[in-house]
Structure formats: structure tokens, C-alpha cells
Amino acid sequence: MAQRLSMAVGSAFKALSNPSREDMVAALGEVTGTLALQRMRTRMATDATGRRLLRERPVINTSTVSLSELRALPKHTLGRAYVSFLDIEGVSPDTRTPVKHMYDTDDELKYVMLRYRQVHDFFHVLTGMGTTLEEEIAVKWFELAQTGLPVALLSGVFGPLRLNSSDRKLLFTEHVPWLVQCGSSSKFLMNVYYEECMHLPIADVRQQMGIFLPPGYVPKDALIQD
Predict the structure, then answer these.
(1) Mean pLDDT of 36-47
(2) Are the beta carbons of 59 and 118 closer than 8 angstroms?
(3) C-alpha of 205 from chain center
(4) Is the pLDDT reported for residue 189 higher than 80?
(5) Which of 179, 124, 171 shows the shortest CA–CA distance to 146?
(6) What is the rounded end-to-end Cα distance, in angstroms, of the chain?
(7) What is the 3-state secondary structure (H, E, C) of 14-58?
(8) Separation between Cα atoms, residue 60 and residue 76, nearest integer Å
(9) Quick check: 45 and 51 in contact, CB under 8 A?
């Protein structure tokens, strides 16, 4: 318990003072997220696709997902939107931090945390959000509504302190109200087998998941060029 508390305090200080420290954000998520992860696992266990995911435990990386094949898909598909997001934002599914600090939990719960990290980019893709600080914070509010993870709450509350006043106003007047409502009313996105949806039109995936976009909002995938 003392070790967990020390880790929580130390990682919280470092993560909130420097959100770019992905390792500290990951550690904070692990040491504070047990109860939320248990609830997430229960929601997965009560869904047919969620149960498959818990049983099969697929991972998303460049060994299991061919990015070159995704680049060949039509631009309106989920897979093309996903790989375009990776290319434009300069990120890779291989860079997701492995689970390191969940010492007293079972392997299944560790997998729930790993899966949450590996599908984070799909949250960006489905909401049409990029990776600016403002957009990352906005997606954390969506994740909070979806998962209840304390790290999402902490990032959503303290992250805006690093924004200028105009960006902070935009965040809380436009992005946060939409994404909290969207995250609360949409399907639980941990119960999606994204690897099997890559060929589907992203508009259809959004509709099936209950993801709605605000009037006049242009998601990143709408800007993809052939």
C-alpha cells in the first residue's frame, strides 16, 4: 500500500506538471485505476464482443496490423482514417507504454488497461480530434465519460492550466460539453473489435457506435487526400 501511494503521488506530480511524460501518465493511470478498470472489465464481460476480447486478448501493433494495407483502403474507411491519423500526427501503435505497475492485479485486468491504451488512437479518430494539447485534453474528457478512469479526470482538470485563455475557453465552451455528452451516450468503445472494422466506412462506424459530431465540425478524416 505504501509503495502504491508513493508511486501515485510521485507519478501524479510529474504527469500533471509535464503531460508529455507518457511514462508518468501511464504509471498514474495504473496505480489509481483499479476500481475503474474492474468496472470496465465487467462491462466487457457482459457484452459478446467484449467477452471475445477478454478471451482472445488481441494486441494492436505493427506486427498484428499492416499499416501498408490500411493505406491502400478507400479514404472513407475506418482503417484509412486510423493510419492517416498515425501518419499525420507522427505516432505509432508500437509506442504505447506496456503495463508495469499493476503488481497486485490479475492478467485479465492488466489486459484491460493495455487494450485501453492501444485503442486510445481510435478515440481520436472517431471524434475527429488531433493531438494538440487542447485536443488531447478534450479526448480525456471523452475517455472520462466512457471509462471513469481517475487519470482521465486528473488530466482533464489540470491539463487546461497549460493552455492560454482562448484555447481554454474553446475547450470548455465547445469541446468538453460535446465530448462528455457523446462519451456518455455512445456505445462502450472498449467493446469494439477495431481490427475487424477497418474496412467499414467511418461514418457507418460512428453511427453504429453512437458517435455524433457537432454541426459544422470538420473531423480530421474529412481532410484525407487520395
Answers:
(1) 97
(2) yes
(3) 16
(4) yes
(5) 179
(6) 54
(7) HHHHCCCCHHHHHHHHHHHCHHHHHHHHHHHHCCHHHHHHHHHCC
(8) 21
(9) yes
Q: Residue 137: CB partners within 8 Å, gap ≥ 6?
A: 155, 156, 159, 160, 163, 171
| DSSP of the chain | -HHHHHHHHHHHHHHHH-TT-HHHHHHHHHHH-HHHHHHHHHHHHTSHHHHHHHHH----STTTS-HHHHHTS-TTBHHHHHHHHHHHHT--GGGSPPP-S-TTS-HHHHHHHHHHHHTHHHHHHHHT--SSHHHHHHHHHHHHHHH--HHHHHHHHHGGGGS-HHHHHHIIIIIHHHHHHHHHHS--GGG--GGGTTTSBHHHHHHHHT----TT---GGGG---
Q: Residue 200 CB: number of other CB atoms within 10 A?
A: 15
Q: How far apart are CA 139 and CA 108, in angstroms?
A: 25
Q: How does pLDDT run across 116-138, given as a tens digit for each residue? A: 999 999 999 999 999 999 999 99
- Indicate the length of the chain as a whole number: 226
**Cell numbers found for residue 9:** 503521488
- 126 grid coordinates: 472517431
CA-to-CA distance for 183 and 56, rounded, in angstroms? 26
